[in-house]
Amino acid sequence: MTLKIMKKPYTIQIDLKWPKALLILVFTVTFFSCDSLYEVLEAVDKTTSTSITEKEAISGLKQALEKGVQNSTGLLGKSNGFLNSFQYKIPFPSDAQKVEKTLRNLGEGALVDNMITAINQGAENAVRQSGPIFKKAIQDMTITDAINIVKGGNGAATNYLKQNTSKDLVQKFSPEIQGALDQAQATKYWTDVFTIYNKLPTTQQKINPNLNAFVTQKAISAIFDVVQKEENKIRANPTERSSEILKKVFAYADANK
């Protein structure tokens, strides 16, 4: 943006993007009054400042989270989204990995592989149903929450979502996970695995970890991880801000770091 100032015998056209120090020098050497200088500097401030309304803050944050949730459910909810992922593939629970090793050594590797496939397909099926749950949680965000999150830095929006929805998500995910596990026959494989292991003469302590709770937590953690990565990309890279409201809100966040 430029500013044209008429001052006999001169007409000066100034680019308001110039640094203030340069503007001061220009006006000093051309003998303008202090009032004129302050008028121009005030115009510079008005054209370069970044501000957002409360409505814009909450709209931008909701849009960022919706984008993150959409990308995470799309990534993890696709066919073999968990199973083929190096980062998010769900293994045996840590307290059951001894079971996996023992059964593989006894030639029951196929049973173990079926179990792992079923676990991951169960998580995949549940994630496909999670969209409406996250959507409602995002809609419940308040204006005060949004303003604090905008200024909060990397992961602030995801942490807000995690802190305020995790308990409800577990309660709502659990039946979805159980139904998905039953559909994928994971429960049957799980029972078979631990029935065989617990009957072994070498087994000193019988175990039977809670499969539903384990898979539920892994699925929710994976979703939040992807959401946070998407949020941080939007914060760090202006090209990831795919709408005008995202550009405005996160430009404000950049200016207030």
Walk me through what this model shows.
- By secondary structure, the chain is mainly α.
- The chain folds into two domains: 2-48, no CATH class; 54-255, no CATH class.
- Helices cover 68% and strands 5% of the residues.
- It has a two-stranded antiparallel ribbon with strand order 1-2.
- Helix 4 packs antiparallel against helix 5.
- It is elongated.
- 30% of the residues are buried.
- The model is unreliable at 1-18 and 20-49 (pLDDT under 50).
Compact overview of the structure:
With 257 residues, the chain is mainly alpha-helical. It has helices at residues 20-29, 34-48, 54-76, 97-105, 109-128, 131-139, 143-150, 156-183, 186-199, 211-236, 244-255, and strands spanning 2-7, 10-15.
Beta-strand content estimate: under 5%
Helix fraction by DSSP (H/I, runs of at least 4)? 55-70%
Structural class: mainly alpha
The coarse overall form would be elongated
Cα-atom radius of gyration: 28 Å
Distance between the termini: 25 Å
The number of distinct helices, counting runs of at least 4 residues, comes to 11
Tell me the number of strands.
2
What oligomeric arrangement do these chains adopt? single chain
Order of strands across the biggest sheet?
1-2
Q: Helix and strand layout, with pairings?
A:
Layout: E1 2-7, E2 10-15, H1 20-29, H2 34-48, H3 54-76, H4 97-105, H5 109-128, H6 131-139, H7 143-150, H8 156-183, H9 186-199, H10 211-236, H11 244-255
Antiparallel strand pairs: 1-2
Summary keywords:
257 residues, two-stranded antiparallel ribbon, 2 domains, mainly alpha, 11 helices, elongated
